[in-house]
Amino acid sequence: MRSGPLPVGRIAAPLPVSRPAVSQHLKVLTDVGLVDVTPRGTMRVYRLSPKGVAELRAWFDGLWDDALAGFARAAEARATERKTRT
Q1: Alpha-carbon separation of residue 53 from 6, 29, 33, 37, 83 (angstroms)
Q2: Left if phi > 0, otherwise alpha if psi is -120 to 50, otherwise beta: which for 61?
Q3: Could you tell me whether strands 43-48 and 35-40 are parallel, antiparallel, or unpaired per DSSP bridges?
Q4: Which of 53, 54, 60, 68 is the most buried (most CB within 10 A)?
Q5: How far apart are CA 8 and CA 4, in angstroms?
Q6: What is the pTM of this model?
């Protein structure tokens, strides 16, 4: 899907899980907005949702920002603690 829209059979082919299992995972990804699905005749073609991926990336960026800010606070507190000891 990263290289473009694909039907479930093409997505499932190289994976060590059944096609129905891949379909279930795709449904979950579709429900949360990470994957878009387009019916084409009897097939359903899946592609990454640019909006959903952007939202996920923003969430991860916020997570990292929070983690790095926490690390900076801890490092500053440690530096202050060391200064008061000397």
Answers
A1: 17, 11, 8, 15, 45
A2: alpha
A3: antiparallel
A4: 53
A5: 13
A6: 0.71
Q: How far is CA 10 from CA 25, 53, 59, in A?
A: 14, 21, 29
> Would you state the structure tokens that stand for residue 4, as one six-digit string?
């473009």
Long-range CB pairs of 39-46 (<8 Å, 24+ gap) are: 40/7, 43/7, 43/8, 44/7, 44/8, 45/5, 45/6, 45/7, 46/1, 46/5, 46/6, 46/7, 46/8, 46/11
Q: Identity (one letter) of the amino acid at 27? A: K
The radius of gyration of the chain from alpha carbons, rounded to an integer in Å, stands at 22
Tens digit of each residue's pLDDT (9 = 90 or more) over 30-73: 999 999 999 999 999 999 999 999 999 999 999 999 999 999 99
